[in-house]
Amino acid sequence: MLAGSYSCKREIQKRELLTNYEVNDFSELFKAFWTGMNTQYQFWDKETVNWDSMYRAYKPKFDSLNHVKYSDTTINRCFQYMADMTKGLHDGQYYLTLASGGDYRFEDSLYRSYYTYMPKLLRANRVHANLPDTLFDHIIQNNYLNDFDYGVYKNYTTAQVIQVITGNISKGAKNLAYISINDFLMKESYDANYTARPTRPVIKNFFDKVHKSAVDGLIIDLRNNRGGNLEDIDFFTGQFTDKTVLYGYARHKSGSGRLDYTPALPLNITPQAGATEFKKPIVILADIYSAAVCEMVIQAFKALPNANVKVIGERTYGTAGTVVGNDISTNGGAFYMGSFAMVNISNTALMDKNHEFNFNGIAPDVEVKYNDASIATMKQTGVDIQLEKAIQYLNQ
């Protein structure tokens, strides 16, 4: 009976995720673009964009491009159509790369020969440019820190560079430790055996202060941190707790249907060796360029049950998803349209512990905004208004 029941079982073939569509003309390009987004995008249940309406509105426009002479003008018009179709989407990981470049108009500004269209980054750039390297290399080192130390590591495959800066705040009466992390490659850099200025002793000394609670408070500077490796959530946040802590949920696509999603899977902080529960106040500095895994780290810190964590600065980027592992295993993510263009999107959707997606960024507890003018003033005066507010708050 057992053998019989297995022999009669219908075999269901696992879908192969199509990640490179064949494209020979503009009609096929539209079909690849629309289908790829329809099949592999993670957030259709949360979007206000009607993707079926986009099909009806834009298919004739792409078809019409086949009847005019192929030129830079037609390529740019196609690029404009693709940008217009997707400019309202929530996914902070979304970007469109056109192999030949292109011109398009976005929010009344014309971008010429712009190879990569990333709408959320363009919106951030309109608020202010990212903070300059001189902020950390000179201003903070010279004006705010005693016992300054730093380590640098580069992943030569991805070209990502992490710079970890530590020290003790020189202003105010309390003993405050400071750490700046510009990219989450902490564990990778900690384990690396080849680097001229290793991060391992810098990170280890900071963790020792955390484990011993040898300070009155901490400032964790995550401004202009665009994300990095997921393993750093445990490696870093797990130094502050001796218990497993739920901080969010993740889901993937479960199939090729537009609304095929897996159940929400819990995300937990795993305590690291030697960790104790840290109960001293923590300030996290964040800005509009704090994104992706960086935002997950902030959510994890905010979830620590007995920690006093405040975010000072600006609302974060608002990524809501990340790229984890293999796109085929997650039934979603990036895809290519022949050699013409490429779309990058999240293959994992992320929620906080209240099951909310981080589309609009994490709001600061104390808002201190920069703009291009105040950044220029900071360069001249050496006064970092966001760090000043953090020091003031912790010295109350």
UniProtKB/TrEMBL annotation:
Source organism of the structure: Niastella koreensis
Gene3D superfamilies from the UniProt entry: 2-enoyl-CoA Hydratase, Chain A, domain 1 (3.90.226.10), 3.30.750.44
InterPro entries: ClpP/crotonase-like_dom_sf, Tail-specific_protease
Residues covered by the Tail specific protease domain: 154-369
Pfam family for this entry, one: Peptidase_S41
Name of this chain's protein: Tail specific protease domain-containing protein
